[in-house]
Amino acid sequence: xxxxxxxxxxxxxxxxxxxxxxxxxxxxxxxxxxxxxxxxxxxxxxxxxxxxxxxxxxxxxxxxxxxxxxxxxxxxxxxxxxxxxxxxxxxxxxxxxxxxxxxxxxxxxxxxxxxxxxxxxxxxxxxxxxxxxxxxxxxxxxxxxxxxxxxxxxxxxxxxxx
Length: 162
What we know:
Helices cover 44% and strands 18% of the residues. It is globular and about 45 Å long. It has a 5-stranded parallel sheet, with helices on both faces. The chain is built from 6 helices and 5 strands. One of its GO terms (cellular component) is cytoplasm. Its cofactor is Mg(2+).
């Protein structure tokens, strides 16, 4: 039986912390689908197509990782992918309450699906896409937080917005 996991998020931009969890998840499951949500309410830096493109570029060498954009409920996307596991990242205790609520709602909507929490490597525990965007917007160095392909895209987008 093939074990399929979904790692969902907006990935705006996809960080080295995200990449760490993708790599580690790929070792645990037969297939990992990185589900990139539209999430217009968050006012993303990049549109969905660009976020998918960037994620594909930095995971191209991972045979069992697939990148897909989606809209709507995560559980519906997971069902369509025939996934039985959701992967969620926890950086700090502050993430837990929100993630715990999400896991409960997802369990209510799709009782057969499990949620697994992974913590990033210690060097990535303080990284968030929002923080990276804020630092980049103010001209700070984000090179240690982003794959070079993503760093270049962020720099170009920030220059366009200035």
